[in-house]
């Protein structure tokens, strides 16, 4: 079977297409024919050599495919089941812990840039019945992160305002989920073309943050203060995110695209009686909750474009460019 490996010291020029053998499942394991994956920022860090991994690690945390064999004692799945991966295979339910956050595919263990994988049955859940493999493969990281932030953590009600930043996978899923929950959405981007796409997807208000550098204050003026900010920028955006909040509002800290440390306007933060919650994807139980809701809603993920497995480096370069709107897919069919 074909796979892609990250060869030391990493970097997109060191993503190598290789041939390897599949492995029959041991007790408690399933073998899955992988049909699709999707790109996340975490995957980019691994591929670019910015997040050190073992030599010849097979990257990609997301995957969707069909169960082709099951080991002894497997109770969750049968041959033919359509499944998708879990970002944290050891986090079944409950609160996050260090033990539960280990075992990430494509990082701690080999991932889904491989036509066949053999893993614990706990590394998978059933995928939404109405979705294709390509669509389901966008959910395990970005979809679940947005779901946990809006549904599992926040106490949002109809009419609450949610602010989303940019047009990456988490932000687009957050917009979609917020609308299904009856919330209003205000979205930011520096591209007028993307702002129009955000409106078409359901955003009630949009702001060009390049033209409006104090976009947080503007968002507060437009909405009266937002209930939740889905924060993906980090230090470069946190000040305006605080200023966008209503009294008692929440920031879901999901990404640090502008750096790993920075200043928070603490006086404005506590004056708003605000809270900030770190969101690192979610548990297997939360993923099952998400799948059920997405099936009921008929939610359709937004996929910008897809690349074939041997084009993985090209796909990451496209991700680097920031041109995409929604998710970038990877086909292994």
UniProtKB/TrEMBL annotation:
One Pfam family per UniProt: ADH_N
Gene3D superfamilies per the UniProt record, alphabetical: Medium-chain alcohol dehydrogenases, catalytic domain (3.90.180.10), NAD(P)-binding Rossmann-like Domain (3.40.50.720)
Entries under SMART domains matching the protein: PKS_ER
Occurrences of domain Enoyl reductase (ER) (ranges): 10-330
PANTHER family: PTHR45033, ZINC-TYPE ALCOHOL DEHYDROGENASE-LIKE PROTEIN C1773.06C
Stated name of the protein: NAD(P)-dependent alcohol dehydrogenase
Organism phylogeny: Bacteria, Pseudomonadati, Pseudomonadota, Gammaproteobacteria, Cellvibrionales
């Amino acid at each position: 079977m074909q796979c892609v490996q990250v060869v030391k010291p990493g970097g997109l020029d060191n993503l190598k297409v290789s041939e390897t053998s599949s492995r029959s499942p041991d007790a408690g394991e399933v073998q899955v024919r992988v049909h699709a994956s999707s790109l996340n920022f975490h995957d980019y860090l691994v591929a670019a050599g910015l997040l050190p991994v073992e030599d010849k690690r097979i990257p990609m945390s997301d995957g969707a495919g069909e169960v082709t064999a099951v080991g002894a004692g497997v109770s969750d799945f049968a041959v033919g089941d359509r499944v998708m991966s879990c970002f944290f295979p050891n986090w079944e339910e409950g609160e996050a812990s260090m033990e539960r956050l280990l075992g990430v595919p494509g990082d701690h263990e080999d991932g889904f840039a491989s036509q066949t994988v053999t893993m614990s049955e706990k590394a998978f859940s059933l995928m939404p019945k109405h979705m294709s493999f390509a669509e389901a493969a966008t959910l395990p990281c970005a979809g679940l992160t947005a779901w946990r932030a809006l549904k599992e953590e926040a106490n949002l009600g109809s009419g609450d305002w949610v602010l989303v930043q940019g047009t990456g996978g988490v932000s687009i899923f957050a917009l979609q989920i917020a609308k299904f929950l009856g919330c209003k959405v205000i979205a930011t981007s520096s591209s007028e073309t993307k702002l129009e796409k955000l409106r078409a997807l359901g955003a009630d208000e949009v702001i060009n943050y390049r033209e409006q550098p104090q976009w947080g204050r503007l968002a507060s003026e437009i909405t009266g203060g937002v209930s939740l900010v889905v924060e993906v920028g980090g230090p470069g955006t946190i000040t305006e995110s605080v200023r966008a909040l209503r009294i008692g509002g929440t920031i879901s800290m999901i990404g640090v695209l502008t750096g790993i440390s920075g200043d928070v306007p603490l006086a404005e933060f506590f004056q708003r009686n605000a809270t900030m919650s770190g969101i690192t994807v979610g548990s297997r139980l939360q993923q099952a909750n998400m799948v059920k809701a997405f099936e009921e809603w008929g939610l359709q993920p937004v996929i910008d474009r897809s690349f074939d497995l041997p084009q993985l480096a090209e796909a990451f370069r496209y991700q680097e460019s920031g041109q995409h709107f929604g998710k970038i897919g990877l086909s292994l069919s």
